[in-house]
# Entry
Amino acid sequence: MPGHFEPIPGGGAAVALDDVEISIIRSLAVQLLELIGPGPAEDAPDDPLAELFAEGPSEPPADPVLRRLFPDAYTDPEGTPGPKRADEQKAHSAEFRRFTENDLRAGKRENALAVVRSLDALAAETAGAGGAAGAGGAVLKLTPQESQQWLRALNDLRLAIGARLEITDEDDTDLLYRLPDEDPRKPMVMAYLWLGGLQETLVTTLLP
# Structure
């Protein structure tokens, strides 16, 4: 999948995507939205103050993907801490999570929604033009704000896939290139590497 982002006038970015690529990104973004779940306001739409005063969870998520997306804020970079230090880190992380995770989820949810909306708008634009772009896809053009949302969403998608593939460091990534075609993880690996290429070119595009 050779598509890559390029700068456009006004500070935005553009990328040519074929129909398969559009379908893959949209599907992954929708799956991410389902995993993140609805916000407090969606759970209690009749209470306008619910989201303002809602507290988040204090325990890490059980799902490994969500744990990667919402990690503990306090960890020991030098390795396994002693029992007392571990208890302190757990308490601090729980308190931090309680007051920040809802906002973090809302931000990630909005970024994924921005991806879905922009792809849907692209499909509608192509259809409205009588399929001028053909079955091969179309060129997606993003504003500077949309570019930032896409960048964050691409990062979340790679984190999610990386968690499913149990990638923990760069050495694991190197091993992915050598997976045989018959390995059942291969499609997910290809998506992970492709999204990484998109993310890298978008970062380069947005550099001043």
User: Anything to note?
Assistant: DSSP finds eight helices and three strands in the chain. The mean pLDDT is 83. The beta strands are 6-7, 13-17, 138-142.
